[in-house]
Amino acid sequence: MTAKKYRKIKIALSVLLALFLFLFGVASGLLIASADADRNVRFLPAYQKEDLAPLAAKESWTDEDYRTILMQTGLGRSAADALRAEGNAAALSLYQDEFFYEGEVRHEFTAGTVTTLHDVLYEPGTDTEHHALFAPLEKGDVILTSTCHTFGWHNGHAVLVTDVRAQDVLESTAPGQKSRITHGGARWFAASPNFLVLRLKGVSKEERAELADRAKTELVGVGYTLTVGIFSPKDQCENGRAPQGTNCAHLVWQSYKNCGYDIDSNGGLVVTVHNIAKSDLFEVVQAYGFDPDRLWR
For residue 106, how many other CB atoms are within 10 A of its CB? Predict the structure, then answer.
């Protein structure tokens, strides 16, 4: 065998070995991610259910009552008040059943990727997804989850609600795809083992709706990039620029930044879903599969 042929074989074997090690790393990472997700993806109360019927029948609620509602249903004050305003306070027991529901968590590849898993909640022993009840949504609400994970890192996913009746959301999903309005996109979160619904505090419903409408006008059709804030400006729209790149957390952040609200809790170069979850500018409308006392901390 000539030296030239030997070198070619050696190079080919090296490439195959590198490919094998890469694939082994991917598989190992996904297995670790799945195990980690099983442990951390869904909070279930260790305390007992309480009978909420007497509380639902009360003419007004105290701070202690709101605390009970939060710990038993995951619903924040505004969500509980919305149910009361609809004459539907008795529905608290339905949200309580959902909050205590265990289900069966399965890990599925996120569409368009081979490295990111999404945890999905199923009816045990069936192929039927379990869809949780949403609290009454409003335009401009943020829905997020920690249930997307890549190599054990819970990067999560976040969207902006743009239409309540149709449950449309503005989102950025994966490399090679542009930000878009996903019709019925909120329902994707309903099948997740956890999600948070967040709402800007101290701002009128009308102003929050205007924020969502502005985002639909300015932030649809933006290409996906993970490096926004590192190799390009974090504020893509500063000084009237047209945005060139975004990702799920950044898109939600940019929607609020364009209206004067910085929802990045640590103000770093990049914004993550976790940063948004920890922002003090938001109130919790609903915590599903999260510990109401700790949320995603």
Answer: 16
Cα–Cα distance list, 106 to 137, 186, 214, 297 (Å): 27, 19, 37, 23
For tokens 């019925």, name the residue: 184
For the chain, domains (ranges, CATH) are 104-288 (3.90.1720.10)
| DSSP code string of 65-103 | HHHHHHHHH-B-HHHHHHHHHTT-GGGHHHHHHHHT---
Q: What is the pTM of this model?
A: 0.85
Q: At what angle do helices 63-73 and 92-99 cross, to 10 degrees?
A: 50
Q: How far is the C-alpha of 163 from the C-alpha of 139, rounded, in Å?
A: 6
Digits of tens for pLDDT over the chain (297 positions)?
565 555 555 554 544 444 443 334 444 444 444 444 445 689 999 999 999 999 999 999 999 999 999 999 999 999 999 999 999 999 999 999 999 999 999 988 766 555 568 899 999 999 999 999 999 999 999 999 999 876 556 679 999 999 999 999 999 998 889 999 999 999 999 999 999 999 999 999 999 999 999 999 999 999 999 999 999 999 999 999 999 999 999 999 999 999 999 999 999 999 999 999 999 999 999 999 999 999 997
Paired with 287 in beta bridges are: 196
Residue 137 C-alpha from the chain's centroid = 15
Rounded-to-integer distance, Cα 22 and Cα 208, Å: 45
